Amino acid sequence: MKPDLFEAPDYYNLDELLTEEHLLVRDAAREWVKRDVSPIIEEYAQRAEFPTQIVNGLANIGAFGPYIPEEYGGAGLDYISYGLIMQEIERGDSGVRSTASVQSSLVMFPIWKYGNEEQKMKYLPKLASGEWMGCFGLTEPDHGSNPSGMVTNFKDKGDYYLVNVAKMWISNSPIAQVAIVWAKNEEGRIHGLIVEKGMDGFSAPETHNKWSLRASSTGELIFDNVKVPKENILPNRSGLGAPLSCLDSARYGIAWGAIGAAMDCYDTALRYSKERIQFGKPIGGFQLQQKKLSEMITEITKAQLLAWRLGDLKNKGKATTAQISMAKRNNVEMAIKIAREARQILGGMGISGEYSIMRHMMNLESVITYEGTHDIHLLITGLDITGLNAFK
Ligand code: TGC
Ligand code: FAD
């Protein structure tokens, strides 16, 4: 892969909206991605393997639980810092950002919000340091967009809960020591259970043959009469709202992360357009290529503003689910369109692993689907503005 020459676009001087702490956190993450992710990520994506050696680095830049209080091992940062970290990581690769999103927002967040003190002390510091990896099991083979129909269930057996059935498409599951699993009790009420690797009847086989998010490890969670200790239930919230609130936090991170992927594609295409000569001049001098590049920087700038404002609302505790949905939907679509256009600017080289664009483009096909599909987010906005439910 070519050396990482990335220069971040900031067309509207948005750095002026950031505090000194935001800039420090952002620059540390940017530096780390350049040093430890860019040189290796293409090879790992080609091999469809998660680079486990980056886990320590992710922990060191505060990517595991950026907003979790320091007493539990988190970085104690605000939501804009969290967003900036996700942006920088996804600038390197969406699969690496997935690993961090899942660990922070889908594993640490529910333990922090809905766990008891013993659970927080037992799991959060280990997850923050990367000593343990976690995953989040909501999706099932027959229940993706509609998780309320889930069939994974547990029965109260007096001394323990007996868990059965399965989850699929679970990021990090093959490498995780701990899984937050959403399952129904005998009354059909959804609860979160902490399931640990090594429990009898629990397995997490890897999903192969992905053309997308190849540097992220994806798998299943299979429960065959797994006995889960009763102290492993998350006691402080039940119902579908519990997992959905975790998704709010992860979708927020994706709204920022997608900007990173878009910035990388734009920056690569801009540089290439100034260097590549056809018909005796740089292709960046042709109007058709300038149209593409001008539209890209316009869309990136709009997405940056949307993410910053959402972060500001989130810091004030005012960001709504529907606002987060809009930003996830808009920014991921923006990034995928930019990746497609940027790939064309590179011509044949655009499909080569010498450059990051094709990898971003393929990754974004997962990002536009997970954490709520593009359609589902549109319907969340539709419901919010009309008050009419078009899901069912
Ligand atoms: P609905 O009737 O709307 O809601 C059920 C209950 O939940 C409450 N609620 C929320 N609570 C907290 N936060 C939110 N964001 C909430 N949204 C809803 C709601 O008030 C209600 O509470 P109550 O007390 O009345 O019971 O639920 P629904 O069944 O109609 O579904 C709505 C819909 C379709 C929007 C929801 O199911 C949905 O978002 N579906 C998409 C599923 C999804 O996003 N799955 C993601 C799986 S995880 C993943 O993809 C990880 S990818 C890895 C990575 O990030 O890198
Ligand atoms: P479906 O729900 O079957 O949707 C198929 C199509 O129908 C979509 O286009 C959808 O928009 C459309 N559709 C569905 N319902 C409606 C409706 N009411 N109106 C209009 N159109 C509709 N899940 C986890 O729990 N944990 C993870 O860590 C995780 N990681 C993932 C990693 C990857 C790489 C991928 C690809 C997925 C991951 N997922 C994870 C699952 C992901 O969240 C689901 O794939 C997603 O929610 C969509 O569910 P589905 O694939 O079953 O599609």
Largest sheet: 4 strands, antiparallel
Low-confidence stretches: none
Helix percentage: 40-55%
Number of helices: 10
Mean of residue pLDDT values: 98
Global structural class:
alpha+beta
> Separation of termini?
47 Å
Instruction: Give me the count of strands.
Output: 9
Strand order of the largest sheet: 2-3-7-6
Q: Rounded to an integer, what's the Rg over CA atoms? A: 21 Å
Ligand inventory reads: 3-thiaglutaryl-CoA, flavin-adenine dinucleotide
β-sheet strand percentage: 5-15%
Q: What is the H/E string?
A: HHHHHEEEEEEEHEEHHHH
* Molecular shape: globular
Q: What features would you describe in this structure?
A:
- Helices cover 50% and strands 13% of the residues.
- With 392 residues, it is α+β, with helices and mostly antiparallel strands.
- The chain has helices at residues 20-47, 55-60, 79-92, 94-114, 117-129, 241-275, 287-315, 321-345, 357-367, 374-386; strands at residues 134-137, 153-156, 160-171, 178-184, 190-196, 202-203, 218-229, 277-278, 281-282.
- Helix 4 packs antiparallel against helix 6 (241-275), helix 6 (241-275) runs antiparallel to helix 9 and helix 8 packs antiparallel against helix 10 (374-386).
- The radius of gyration is 21 Å and the shape is globular.
- The strands form 3 sheets. The protein has a 4-stranded antiparallel beta sheet, with helices on one face.
- It starts with 19 loop residues before the first helix and ends in a 6-residue tail after the last helix.
- The chain binds 3-thiaglutaryl-CoA (TGC) and flavin-adenine dinucleotide (FAD).
- Flavin-adenine dinucleotide is lined by residues 102, 135-139, 144-145, 169-171, 213, 218, 366, 369-371, 373, 375-376, 379, 391.
